[in-house]
Amino acid sequence: MDINKNQLISETAKLGNELHNGLSLDRVAREYSSFLAMNSIIANLTGRCLDHNLVFQNQPEMPRYIKKDYDKSMLNFYNKVLREFPLYKEISSNVLKAYLDSGIEDYMLGGCIRGYSEKDAKEILLSYFSEYGDKAYQTAKRMIEEERIQMGYQYENSPSMAFHTGSVLLQTGYICMQQDKYDSSTLAFLSHELGHAIDKEIFYYPQQKKIKVYDDPFNEIPSTFFELGMLSHLKEQGIDPNGALMLQSFYLNIMYARQYHLLDTFVNIEKTGSIEMTEDFRNWFLYGMGYYVALAMNELSRENPEEYFRKFTDMACARNEADFTGLIEIAGIDSESFVNGEFIRKKLDSEVMQLKKRYSYKE
User: Which residues of 144-196 form beta strands (DSSP E)?
Assistant: First the structure.
């Protein structure tokens, strides 16, 4: 899959012109990062880019305002986390205990994941997203058919395997992924980024209260929900059950590492009464806590994904108002078993049993 370069250049120029022609400072601050990301994709794919300095020609104070807006968003994010950090500390502590008690790391053996042609990969993606109903399916279909996905995208100084960038003003976006081949891991990553596209269309684009992506501690829940759902789909449909099982256990291991860092930070907050605002902690929270919520949501969704999509939508649209407990309960999650670790213990025990069976492991 490759991005339609003419379309990308045209839409980026349109966005740049809108920014240049006198949007409010707040609107420009919200959209400028999208312009930069899209312009960077143009430069990567074509070797040239649009002149971003034109954006500031009419508003020379904008660079300083954007930096101030970024700092404010970071502070908002940390304040939201700190308001409920004793709860998050309890969750992380119980998740780590359950993980260590399960012994799952002893069964994480290697294996192969299945590869696909581009045609087959597209068919699997569309078949998977159709499970959630027309809204999810049409968003995924449009991103694919309008050539808004770039495989084999090589960029320096970024740890991301893939990313989605979207513009509220344009009401659409693009996905770039480093991998240039299609396999079960690629499908999971693509599902994650398509999940961001769906979340943008459900929540960010039409929202009235204007929460910013950088303010949102729960931004990775919707995307990770679809990522984990793809692995379940590959297992349930018999497409790549062994590869999906291996990837699921790998993801659990990553969640453990992030929860470990979270707990360490939470303990330090208790000791010092303060927190250092770093991108590392932000990512540990987004992907560590976000993965745990998405894991529980995925378990609830598999019996009837289309019916559960209504709960998913309610959760996605409530995350600017609800506290954490309220948010997961909107998603149908039993908050008590989620917090005390009962849920993750059952999930880990099930995963260990499947791994033992798969690899004929004998005590």
Answer: 149-150, 162-167, 172-177, 182-183
- The 3-state secondary structure of 213-252 reads HHHCCCCHHHHHHHHHHHHHHHHHCCCCHHHHHHHHHHHH
Whats the size of the chain, residue-wise?
Answer: 363
Q: What residues have CB less than 8 Å from 354, skipping those under 6 apart?
A: 245
Q: For 285-306, how does the pLDDT look when each residue is reduced to its tens digit (9 = 90+)?
A: 989 999 999 999 999 999 999 9
276 close to 112: Cβ distance less than 8 angstroms: no
Residues contacting residue 360 through CB under 8 Å, at least 6 positions apart: none
**Strand ranges of the sheet holding 149-150, from the earlier edge strand across to the other edge:** 149-150, 172-177, 162-167
Specify the DSSP element, H or E, that contains 191. Answer: helix 184-199
Query: Do the beta carbons of residue 91 and residue 339 sit within 8 Å?
Result: yes
Global pTM?
0.90
> What are the Cα distances from residue 303, in Å, to 24, 106, 132, 229?
46, 30, 11, 12
CB count within 10 Å of CB 51 equals: 9
Contacts of residue 257, defined as CB under 8 A and 6 or more positions apart, other chains included, come to none
Residues 74/244, Cβ–Cβ less than 8 Å: no
DSSP code of 152?
S
Query: In angstroms, rounded to a whole number, what is the distance separating the alpha carbons of residues 140 and 129?
Result: 7
Task: Compute and round to an integer the Cα radius of gyration of the chain.
Answer: 21
Q: What is the pLDDT of residues 60-82, one digit of tens each?
A: 666 677 777 777 777 888 888 88
Please report which helix (H) or strand (E) contains residue 115, including its range: strand 115-116
Cβ pair 66, 29 in contact under 8 A: yes
